[in-house]
Amino acid sequence: MNDIRARLIVQGRVQGVGFRWFALSQAQKLGLFGWVRNNFDGSVETEVEGSRSAVEEYIAIIKVGPRFSNVKAVQVDYKPFEGLYTDFNVTR
C-alpha cells in the first residue's frame, strides 16, 4: 500500500481569500480525504489522506494557493495512513 497522510500548516495571506474552498476543490479533484480549517493565528491547517502521488501533488498546489492568497510558508508533517476519513470537509 502506498497511501499516506499529511498535515499541513499554511502561513501567509491565507484567510479571507477562499483558501479553504480552494483546498476542498483540489482535494476532491485528487481523490483525497481529510479536512481544512482556519486557525486563530491566521494560518490554515489541513490534513489529507490518500495515495502518495496525490498527496504530494496536493502539497505542491497548496504551496501556490489560490489567486488572491500569498503563501509564505508551509509546514508538512507526514504520518502513517490510517483511513480516518471518508470525505473532505471544510471546518471553522
Brief summary of the model shown:
This protein is α+β, with helices and mostly antiparallel strands.
Count of the separate structural domains: 1
Global shape: globular
Count of DSSP E strands? Answer: 5
Question: Which runs of at least 5 residues are low in confidence (pLDDT < 50)?
Answer: none
CATH class: Alpha Beta
CATH architecture: 2-Layer Sandwich
Major sheet attributes: 5 strands, mixed
H and E order: EHEEHEE
The largest beta-sheet arranges its strands as 4-1-3-2-5
Query: Beta-sheet strand percentage?
Result: 35-45%
Radius of gyration: 12 Å
CATH topology: Alpha-Beta Plaits
End-to-end Cα distance, whole Å, is 32 Å
SS class: alpha+beta
Average pLDDT across residues? Answer: 96
Task: Classify the helix fraction into a percent range.
Answer: 25-40%
Number of helices in the DSSP assignment: 2
What can you tell me about this protein's structure?
With 92 residues, the protein is of the alpha+beta class. It has one domain (3-79): Alpha-Beta Plaits (2-Layer Sandwich). The chain is built from two helices and five strands. It has helices at residues 19-30, 52-64, and strands at residues 3-13, 33-38, 44-51, 70-80, 88-91. Strands 4-1-3-2-5 form a five-stranded mixed β-sheet, covered by helices on one side. Helix 1 runs antiparallel to helix 2. The protein starts with a strand and ends with a strand.
